[in-house]
């Protein structure tokens, strides 16, 4: 199994969760939409930046490596682009689950 196939599974699940959350937010109203979208965008940027930094450091330190035939060949520094699917999935799934499971309730 290549990283692309593995990433496809994670990203598909993440996309379904995010889509369900978007539907719920659309029903909730405009005020919540902006807050949720902003929080998800900030989360994605932070996770992608941290992944870029720490994956490059760990690969440079020799903590792990990848079989070249499982990668696309695209890299951000030393980190293969495939490593960035997990933070994208997390940025979709975690806020999505928070919304779908009720999150923090607002006081009246």
TrEMBL record:
Q: How is it placed in the membrane, per its record? A: Multi-pass membrane protein
Which InterPro entries does this chain map to? Lycopene_cyclase_dom
Transmembrane residues, as ranges? 6-27, 39-64, 84-103
Q: Which residues form the Lycopene cyclase domain?
A: 11-92
Q: In which pathway does it act?
A: Carotenoid biosynthesis
Keyword 4Fe-4S in the entry? The reply is no
Q: Name one GO cellular component term.
A: membrane
Tell me where it mainly resides: membrane
Q: Where in the cell is it found?
A: Membrane
| Keywords annotated in UniProt | Carotenoid biosynthesis, Isomerase, Membrane, Transmembrane, Transmembrane helix
GO aspect biological process, one term: carotenoid biosynthetic process
Entry annotated with the keyword Membrane: yes
Q: Name one GO molecular function term.
A: intramolecular lyase activity
Question: Which Pfam families does the record match to this protein?
Answer: Lycopene_cyc (PF18916)
Identify the NCBIfam families for this entry.
Answer: CarR_dom_SF
> Could you tell me what this protein is called?
Lycopene cyclase domain-containing protein
Lineage summary: Bacteria, Bacillati, Actinomycetota, Actinomycetes, Micrococcales
């Amino acid at each position: 199994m290549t990283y692309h196939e593995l990433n496809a599974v994670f990203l598909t699940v993440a996309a379904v969760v995010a889509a369900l959350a978007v539907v719920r937010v659309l029903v909730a109203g405009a005020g919540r939409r902006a807050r949720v979208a902003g929080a998800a965008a900030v989360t994605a940027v932070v996770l992608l930046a941290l992944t870029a930094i720490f994956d490059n450091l760990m690969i440079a330190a020799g903590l792990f490596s990848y079989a070249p035939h499982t990668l696309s060949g695209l890299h951000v520094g030393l980190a293969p682009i495939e490593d960035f699917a997990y933070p994208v999935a997390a940025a979709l799934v975690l806020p999505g689950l928070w919304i779908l499971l009720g999150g923090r309730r607002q006081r009246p």
